[in-house]
Each structure stands twice: as C-alpha cells, then as structure tokens.
Amino acid sequence: TKEPVVLGIESSCDETGVGIVRGTQLLANAVSSSMDEHVRFGGVIPEIAARAHLEAFVPTLQQALDTAELTLDDIDAIAVTSGPGLAGALMVGVSAAKALALATGKPLYGINHLVAHVGVGVLEGTVLPPTFGALLVSGGHTEILKVTSLTNDVHLLGSTIDDAAGEAYDKVARLLGLGYPGGPAIDKAAKDGDRKAFRFPRGLSLPKFVGSAENPGKHRNNFSFSGLKTAVARCVEHFEAAGEPIPVADIAASFQEAVVDVITAKAVRAMKENNLTTVLLGGGVAANTRLRELLAARCASAGIALVVPPFSLCTDNGGMVAGLGAQLVADGVEPSGLDFATDSSQP
Ligand code: KG4
Ligand code: ZN
Predict the structure, then answer these.
(1) Which residue in 33, 165, 209, 334 could disulfide with 204, CB within 3.0 to 4.6 Å?
(2) Which residue intervals of the chain bear CATH 3.30.420.40?
(3) Which ligand is the nearest neighbour of the Cα of 285?
(4) CB 89: neighbour CB atoms within 10 A?
(5) Do 176 and 246 touch, CB atoms closer than 8 A?
(6) Are 182 and 165 in contact (CB under 8 A)?
C-alpha cells in the first residue's frame, strides 16, 4: 500500500510549523518562530504570537512544500494542532488548515499537541515498542505519559501541579538577571557553578506526597516547581540583604540540579512501576545538558532504553503533527471534519 503524505500544521505557541511526512519519513519541517518579538517582554505575548502566525503561515507552508518538492496536489491529508495552547495562536493554524482542506478537498485531522510530541518518536526510523513511556518537558508542559496506542490510548501518569519545568527556568533566569528564554541561559551559567552549593527543594518528594509502590501518594508522579522558585528568590534576597555579590553560577547549577534530579527520579520510577522499558524525551527542555546526562545515567542503571529525538523534533514543530496525522490515516481513523473548535486546555 502507498504510504500517506500528510501535511502537519502547528501554531499553539510561538512557533509556526509546517511539516510534511510520507508515512514515517520526514520530508520537510519548516519552522518560523516569533520568539525574537517576545524577548523584551520576558514571556510569550499571545496577541503577538497570533499575529506572527498570520504573517508566517503561508511562507512557512511554501518553504515546506519547496523542501519536500511537492505541491498541495500531492498531499493526502492535513493535520493541525487543535490544542492545548494559546487560544488565539491555535485559531490561526486551525483556520489556515480548514481553508486548505476546503480548497483542496483533503481530509483534515485536529490533533492533540501533547500526543504529537510523543508521536514524533516513530519518525525517522526510530523503533519504539508498542507500549512506551514519555517524558515531556517544555515551557508549557511537564508530563509523564504511558503510550499504548498513539491513536487512542495515551495515559497521563503524572504532571506538574503548578509551573512547567521550562517556566521555572524562565522565572529563575529572570531572578538571576540572565534574560529570556531562561533555559539555555541557566544551562550555560550552570556549567561554571557548583550544583551542590545550595540544597534547593525537590518538589513533592516528601513521603506524604510520594507514598510507596503498594500505597502510592496522590503526587507520587507529579511535579511542583513553585516552592523551588521561591527558595531561589529567598537565596538571592539573602545575598542582596548582606550586600554580597550573588553567586549566579552556583545558584543556577543548584537550581538546575533540583529540577533535573526530581524530574529524572520520578520519571524513571514511573517507568519501572508501569513496566515500561523505553522512555521518549520531548519538549524544549530536552535540550538541557544536565537533564540528558542524568536521565541517560539513571535510565542505564534501571535498564530502561532512552530515546531522544533530534532537537528540531523535540521543540514545537509541524513534523510531529504530520507524523501523528499519518498514523491516524494509516489506522483508518475518521477525519475531524471542518467544524471542530480549538481547545486551549485540551487534556
Ligand atoms: O518546547 P518549547 O520550545 O516550547 C514550549 O514551551 O512548548 O520549550 C521552550 C522551553 C522554554 O521554557 C526554554 O527556557 C526551555 O524550553 N529550554 C531549556 C533549554 N532550552 C530551552 N530549558 C533548559 N535547558 C535548556 N538548554
Ligand atoms: Zn510543545
């Protein structure tokens, strides 16, 4: 049988992404980011993101088609992120996708952004077992997932109860005067610091939250980063009040260690307790040097295979949406039609 050619559209945050796949083969993955326009505000401004998608969509689509050396006639189906994400930003991508579907008569699939992040694992020849785990860490999400079927069975094992991990990086970077986005800045500053200089809290790690394997606590697999952020703020204030220079590198390294320690420990434990032998890492924080290092070490000692897709597929992109769309087509799933809404808080 002929493998479906699927066009995927992503616009849930600041990246306008258009990807094209043939089955599990990635043909193009064009991305335009409006991050430069958000930097001076220290965070993504929804209105600016939505307007940037409107400007970037057609050029990004054209770039993807050119790269794949295809025209819209060659596309078998269109997939688009319908949520979760910024409402106005999502609406631009979904409107564009509906217009394309209407004009070309191709079937359209509305796609869950988080499932697309996980579905990326099958692209480019990565072999995943039928059931696998995933750890998603970005500016918008921090989740541990169990994937039994990408098309109809993705189970949430745990998630953050407050800030996402990337959000914590961004907020702490601001406290330390390191600029935005904070993840790469802290990652870099931490390289010159001592990660044992300060012992910052590992959120939801106390026995009352964690419980035991037989009698798990409510937050066994959940994360919290707001207490950590407050602890860093107190630490900075302490040095300020004493009139001493702030040990930025040591604080960055110690903060990073607290985040990465709790994420990797909880993820690996969740894999073991759910008999998952493979874990896929995704999201923008997957770029973090220390996260990759510690996760690789802990997976290795637990006998768990770690799959880390290329970074261009870890951050938001259209290729992951196209990849999941191709699996829906292959599995014979009914298209979504042209009247579905966006859902900014889609579970
Ligand atoms: O996946 P992504 O591009 O967008 C979404 O949030 O969906 O992730 C962006 C997040 C930002 O919070 C950024 O600070 C963080 O990923 N990030 C990092 C690193 N590179 C990006 N966090 C830690 N270390 C990094 N090297
Ligand atoms: Zn994302």
Answers:
(1) 209
(2) 5-121+314-330, 130-308
(3) 1
(4) 30
(5) yes
(6) no
Furthest-apart CA atoms within the chain: distance in Å: 71
26: which strand partners?
21
Q: Which ligand 1 atom lies nearest to the CA of residue 315?
A: 1
Neighbours of 270 (CB within 10 A): 20
ipTM of predicted assembly, 2 dp? 0.96
Residue in the structure block whose two tokens are 């300020």: 240
Other CB atoms within 10 Å distance of the CB of residue 112: 19
Structurally, what CATH architecture does the domain formed by 5-121+314-330 represent? 2-Layer Sandwich (3.30)
Annotated binding site: 113, 117, 136-140, 170, 183, 187, 288, 316
Residue 319: C-alpha distances to residues 21, 24, 123, 212 (Å): 7, 10, 9, 39
Closest C-alpha residue for ligand 1 atom 16: 284
Give the model's pLDDT for residue 1: 65
- pLDDT at 180 (0 to 100): 87
Task: Indicate whether residue 139 lines ligand 1 (CB < 6 A).
Answer: yes
Residue with tokens 């220390």: 290
The model's pTM: 0.91
* Alpha-carbon span 275 to 100, nearest angstrom: 42
pLDDT at position 314 is 87
Low-confidence stretches of the chain (pLDDT beneath 50): none
Q: What's the DSSP call for residue 216? A: B
pLDDT of residue 7: 98
Residue 30 tokens, joined: 């064009």
Q: Rounded to the nearest whole angstrom, what is the distance from the C-alpha of residue 126 to the centroid of ligand 1?
A: 23
pLDDT at residue 42, as a whole number: 86
Entry field: residues in the chain: 347
Beta strands in the chain (DSSP E): 5-10, 15-22, 25-33, 77-83, 108-112, 132-137, 142-149, 153-159, 278-282, 305-307
Closest CA to 205 of 255, 139, 269: 269
CA distance 130 to 150: 9
Q: What is the CATH number of domain 130-308?
A: 3.30.420.40
* Residue 170 in contact with ligand 1 by CB distance below 6 A: yes
Q: What is the CB neighbour count within 10 angstroms for residue 319?
A: 28
